[in-house]
Amino acid sequence: MEEQDKLLKRISDLVLDMDEEGIVDAVREYLDADFDPEVAVLDGLVDGMNRAGELFAEEEYYVTDLLFCADTFELGMEILQPILMERVDTRADLPKVVIGTVEGDTHDIGKNLCHIMLEAGGFEVIDLGKDVPLQNFIDEAVAQDAHLIGLSALMTTTMGGMRRVIELLEEQGLRQQIKVMIGGSPVSQAFCDEIGADGYSENAFECVELAKRLTHHTELESK
């Protein structure tokens, strides 16, 4: 475990240092050592982005620094994603989830990671992208016969869109049929409870387990 921990710390540091060349070598070295790729994502790449976010909050990093960190993160994910996707279930009857970043919010790193992990966890993912008009989530869920919507927000100013989606579902008589899970750095369990969402996940790995619980409950309710 000591070797794995060292490699994870190195991957995290490389993201923080915006070292695009180094991240490729480090992730490949990690995989060559036969360590779990999912752990590399959460404890390596995501950890590095979280640290960069903290420096940004402390005004030690600028927006351009965060963008370069994100580019480094994406290079690491390009190597890990094909391996994670090998675990995807290819059955035709996979549970469907519609995901996206709410209207007004153009941040999508966390949402993209959830997309990858949900597919690896056995879901068919309909990804609407970022800055998604709120009604579009509902329209797509109905069109795709999806019983779960996943909403992401990375800014406090766009979190209200999550509340509005739930209100729209209620107004259109769909709230009992479609469950809503939320996530993103400014989001919390308290906010989830406040707006009446069905679940909150702190990271992409918890997102998969939450989605499994919510879709299972939906299946039971429909019987």
UniProtKB/TrEMBL annotation:
Annotated InterPro entries: Cbl-bd_cap (IPR003759), Cobalamin-bd (IPR006158), Cobalamin-bd_sf (IPR036724), Met_Synthase/Corrinoid (IPR050554), Meth_synthase_dom (IPR036594)
Domain B12-binding: residue ranges = 94-221
Domain B12-binding N-terminal: start-end pairs:
1-92
Q: Which GO terms describe its biological process?
A: homocysteine metabolic process; methylation; tetrahydrofolate metabolic process
Entry GO MF terms: cobalamin binding; metal ion binding; methionine synthase activity
PANTHER family registered for this protein in UniProt: METHIONINE SYNTHASE
- Protein name (database record): Methanosarcina family methyltransferase cognate corrinoid protein
Taxonomic path: Bacteria, Bacillati, Bacillota, Bacilli, Lactobacillales
